[in-house]
User: What shape does this take?
Amino acid sequence: MARIAKPVIMNVTPGSVAEQAGLKPGDKLTAINGKPVRDDLDFQFLSADEQMALTVVSPTGKRSTVNVRKGLDEELGVDFGGKATYDGIYTCHNNCIFCFVHQQPRGMRPTLNLMDDDFRLSYMHGNFITLVGITDEHWHRIFEQKLSPLYISVHATDDDLRAFLLGTDKGRGIMKQLRELADAGIQFHTQVVACPGLNDGEHLDRTIRDLTSLGENLLSISVVPVGITKYRDGLYDMRKYTTAESQVMIDQIEAWQEQLVPDWGTVLVHASDEWYVMAGREVPGAEVYEDYGQLENGVGMIRLFIEQMNAATDRLPAALPAPRKVTVATGELATETLQRAADWLMAHVDGLTVDVVTIDNEFYGTTTVAGLLTGQDIVKQLRPRGESLGDLVLLPAVAFRETDVKSLDNMSLEEISVLIGGVPVAIAGSPVELADQATAGRLAPERKRRLKSLRFRHQGEAAVVNMPRPTAEKDPLGHCERMPGFGAPLAK
Ligand code: SF4
Assistant: This one.
């Protein structure tokens, strides 16, 4: 059954067309020119007209139609509180053998168990979707509203293998779907969650070969390793990649990069950061990541972190007025990068000592990403350090919910501080935040404007990508297929 959209107006811009038309916070804007407003895409698409008939339902349930006129570039002047969709989120009906959601312990907050497979969130927030079971209505809407680029989980182009990986026969036919998108000019980023012995090796070669046959509307292919937690009872017998296998994977992908660059002008295929960490290899230079198009999939985060760190060097104070010690706690995956940041800070700031502590993820088991650290593991492993923690403990921002700054197991920074002996606790999500916190706010202001966007050249064209991608209800699991890291190599 179709879900009813609830686009409740939260704010009306003073002086706007909406205010002049009498719209008020609390009203529902259910249709524009007779078409339902199901989400922000509908709203942007439908409210672009100069003349509109707005169907409005007041908080008391009174329905009315309001006719408005506005300039072509003029905003209507309402907002819906930052929500991306007003009729809920389309969820998946797959049963992927590597699904991260299925590896959650009981009792975690509901958003961690959200199995979204919503093409709208793919377009708006870069969430990966499988296109399995997409309705004709939704499929046509992608073409009608030109929703491009999309982020698509391919995993394998062989139909039998993909159906097995996704746990459903409906997983067949991905190449046909992608070809239709490409033919219509819809661009897409793709990902492969690699599972040992299943869709890697020659299967991965075939997947890459098939995808590159789709032409220039294929924007990228990322390969991320499957993520495993200790909560896999009753699930497919899956294991992590070894160091040696990670090295083989990187070699395979880099061979493809070399092969593709001459024709494509881009490496096209990327190994996520996690492969390099597992293989004990340095991540590639910034030029390989080009527009950082799959940053939130853990592709290029380490390189970007290092680039941002270097760019902030001239903002560091030469010395602190009094000696200061800071402890930076993170997951295993980010330890080396943060140690680099600690060395950078100590080399440039006299009086500053930075200790980096790796927190083992006992709660989830084999997971090494920072975004899945729990408050209880942090407390348990930092408390014995007592006074040696120094003047401040810095934790990875990605391990805390944006809305209320609580950990996965609902601990606040204040609670953690009390439980580890009263040392102040803060979070940092970038080298700049890390440096500012570590130097007690002594980082000099940026000379130019803040780095809100990343300028780059793609295939000879100047372009800008916003950083980071905005997310409506940001959670460590941006979507089902990823595991959050510091930055976050993600996999499901
Ligand atoms: S991995 Fe994603 S698409 Fe697959 S079952 Fe889990 S939530 Fe659904």
The two ends are 30 Å apart (CA to CA). The domain at 101-299+472-487 is CATH 3.80.30.10 (pyruvate-formate lyase- activating enzyme).
